[in-house]
Amino acid sequence: MNKIIYLDAAASALKPKSVIKTEGDFLRKSYANAGRGVCARAVAVDDMVSRVRGRVAEFINANPAQIVFSSGATDGLNRIVNILTSQPSYSESSNFTVSDLDHHSARLPWEALLHYGKIRKMQILKLDENFDIKIDSVPKTDFLIITAMSNVLGRPQDVEQIISAARRKNPNVITIVDASQYVVHKQIDVKKWDCDFMVFSGHKIGADTGVGVLYIRDSEKYLPDKFGGGMVMKVSGSELVLNSAPEKWEAGTLPLTQIAGLGAAIDYLEQKRPNLYLIKYAYDELSKMPRVKILTGRDAAILSFVVDGMHPLDVGAMLGAHNICVRVGNMCAAWIHNAMGISGSVRVSIGAWNTIQDIKDFIKVMKKIVK
User: Fold this and answer.
1) Mean of the pLDDT values across residues 87-91?
2) First-to-last CA distance in the chain?
């Protein structure tokens, strides 16, 4: 087997030709900085950024002024914490609620606040026997962090109902959604969700690394967390006048090439999402192997498993020796692994490029590994 079989889309998706072409064309023919020039080329770049921002807004049912370009989901999730805790109304006596489904990027910034005494209390959302969030047990809280789809279990959570339950307990709760995995497989509707903040990374959907989306519902309400070029209208003595959103959130030079590719990636994703039949096929075949314990459901968007008597790293190394790329370890999601009583797992995730033959080849190698 000489070809590389890439089954690690949940870590980062391979790039479709349309994204590569769009970025290449931009670099070769159209590159200039944004928001800083009046020549035709600079204006064209401004138009491109505006056009992609509008495309993102349409993609998640938002308004362009609510769309902020970040460097990725981790950047966005950390910025949200910085934004919220820098407001004059913020109180260190607040509490926040997370879950064991969370990626480290979603939960650790809040745990750091707790560690350093910058917030009073952490609460953990209860999970049911399938490790889904128990909606009827959502507590009263000031800040609620929701992972819309675990990168280990691949099951969509009912974000709308979770937020609704939280608002019944506290109408002023601030809700934050990590949609990094969800966005690949399901349509996002931030208005339907009624969330205050939402993030996802471009590279998960086939765009380049270095660009992400930070949705801020009340984008004019908050003070910015970064300052620099492009976000200020006037500076004179002690007078500081900020630009309107979204520009006030985007200090410095934007990742322009990646933004150009983001629009193409969204177009491609809407035309061709991953074929989850391949996951079902892999699930059915792995289920026949006695040493394999599957952690995910047949209807999940990804497939995670462990092999009895083998460390996940060893399984991954053996697959890698046959040119099959999977993810192994705790997936930067230690809490859900702890809840399952294991330290890590092997994860198979697919993109639109994968074929049934890829999965058959994967199964063939797995049979050799577990024989």
Assistant:
1) 94
2) 19
Amino acid residing at 317? A
Domain ranges of the chain: 5-15+274-370, 17-270
Separation of alpha carbons 175 and 156, rounded Å:
17
pLDDT in tens, 299-357: 999 999 999 999 999 999 999 999 999 999 999 999 999 999 999 999 999 999 999 99
pTM recorded for the entire structure: 0.96
Phi, psi for residue 305 in degrees, rounded to 5 = -155, 165
Distances (CA, A) of 203 to 183, 221, 262, 313, 333: 11, 29, 8, 24, 19
In the numeric block, the tokens 């497989």 are attached to 185
For domain 17-270, the CATH architecture is: 3-Layer(aba) Sandwich (3.40)
Q: Quote the percentage of the chain above a pLDDT of 70.
A: 99
Please, which contacts does 298-301 make with residues 24 or more away whose CB atoms are closer than 8 Å? 299/155, 300/153, 300/154, 300/155, 301/149, 301/154, 301/155, 301/156, 301/181, 301/184, 301/185, 301/274, 301/276, 301/349
Please tell me what DSSP assigns to residue 135: G
Residue 262 to residue 159: CA distance in whole angstroms: 24
Token couple for 258: 């990646």
Residue 214 burial class via C-beta count within 10 angstroms: exposed 0-12, middle 13-18, buried 19 and up: buried
- Topology of domain 5-15+274-370 in CATH is Aspartate Aminotransferase, domain 1 (3.90.1150)
The amino acid at 71? S
